[in-house]
Design goal:
InterPro entries: HAUS4, HAUS4_met. The chain has twelve helices and no strands. It is an all-alpha fold. The protein has five domains: 56 residues, no CATH class; 153 residues, no CATH class; 77 residues; 38 residues; 31 residues. Helix 5 packs across helix 6 and helix 6 crosses helix 8. 4% of the residues are buried.
Length: 369
């Protein structure tokens, strides 16, 4: 296909958003959005050109035609098979109904002969079908139990009984099928149970068209449901994507708000802790005062305060003296080990002087007496 023909086909589909909508409608099974087509314009053009040659399922026109013909042949073969299968099932149901009737009521001999002959014919036909090799099997393959179709055909009922059964079979089969159709009509339209036979027959003649309409309506509803399911999936994807965007935006807002109020929250916590500490300190002081009032009298407390003040002042003086002494010791330690002997000798002399001063003081006091 030439470039001019492709441009003509693309332009015939539309432009802009209309082209995107038509491409999405032409390929409903593809998981694409308008955003994908907008971001990939060459892909959009390719799909628009391809839509001229394929249908919504992706089949070409020629392949679609061949598929429709094959489906028509398949439907024809299926109808033939269903016709024979339904006839066979109907005959089996007739035999079963006859067996049930025999258990509950007396059946005329001619009917017994009719159903016995029909049952035997069905069994023989089924056995012949099983023994008859198909074209796909080996012709030299041995028969089941050593029997061949001709031997089984010898078990057929008498020819006169078969002839009489064939004459009565259409009438009996018609009765059976009509009974089944009436039961189906009663199930489909329960209100017709009490209606006349003629009205039932009239409705029965239109039952197939009604069932066909119901089938088409069910298929239409199924297709609508499938389209709604696809649309719901797309909407769910869009909803999830939008929901994720909203969650991210909410997280960013929460983080910004938290950072903005964190300083105010820390300041309030600090003020609360300071107030609580101040309250605890005041409570401790109050407890100390209560203990003092419970332990001492009102006159003893001022005296204890004075004693405490004097002791604290003496303690401070001792601490100052200790510090000055430690400084002197530190300066003495700088002189080394030679000064240690002099210091020991000095301390001994101080002790002797103190002893002698004490002795002189005692002697003076004794002389005064």
């Amino acid at each position: 296909m030439s470039a001019g023909a492709e441009s003509t086909n693309v332009s015939s589909l539309g432009k802009g958003d209309s082209l995107h909508q038509q491409v999405l409608a032409s390929f409903p099974l593809c998981d694409m959005t308008e955003e994908d087509l907008t971001q990939n314009p060459q892909l959009c053009k390719l799909l628009a050109t391809l839509a001229q040659h394929v249908d919504q399922t992706g089949l070409t026109v020629s392949l679609k035609t061949e598929l429709e013909k094959a489906e028509q042949r398949l439907q024809s073969q299926r109808r033939l098979w269903l016709r024979s299968e339904s006839l066979h099932k109907g005959l089996q149901e007739m035999i079963q109904d006859h067996c049930v009737r025999k258990q509950h009521a007396t059946v005329p001999p001619d009917q017994n002969m009719f159903y016995a002959t029909m049952e035997k014919c069905l069994l023989v036909a089924q056995c012949v079908k099983q023994l008859d090799p198909s074209s796909t099997t080996d012709q030299d393959q041995p028969f089941i139990l050593g029997l061949n179709p001709h031997q089984v055909m010898e078990l057929m009922p008498l020819e006169k009984n078969v002839k009489r059964m064939k004459q009565s079979l259409p009438r009996e089969l018609e009765k059976h099928l009509k009974k089944k159709c009436l039961s189906l009509l009663s199930y489909y339209q329960p209100e017709c149970e009490n209606e006349s036979e003629g009205l039932k027959n009239s409705k029965l003649s239109h039952l197939s068209s009604l069932l066909d309409k119901e089938k088409k309506r069910a298929e239409s509803l199924k297709e609508t449901c499938r389209e709604n399911t696809v649309l719901l999936q797309r909407q769910a994807q869009l909803y999830l994507s939008e929901l994720l965007k909203c969650i991210q935006l909410l997280q960013s807002l929460i983080l910004d708000h938290r950072l903005r109020i964190q300083s105010d929250l820390d300041r309030k916590k600090l003020d609360y802790s300071e107030s609580k500490c101040e309250l605890v300190i005041q409570k401790i002081k109050t407890e100390m005062v209560e203990i003092q009032l419970d332990t001492y009298t009102a006159d003893a407390i001022p005296a204890h305060k004075k004693i405490r003040g004097k002791l604290e002042s003496e303690l401070k003086a001792c601490q100052v003296e200790k510090q000055s002494t430690e400084l002197k010791l530190a300066s003495f330690e700088i002189l080394g080990k030679e000064f240690e002997a002099l210091a020991e000798e000095y301390s001994k002399l101080r002790q002797e002087i103190e002893v002698k001063n004490w002795a002189m003081k005692e002697l003076t006091m004794y002389n005064n007496k």
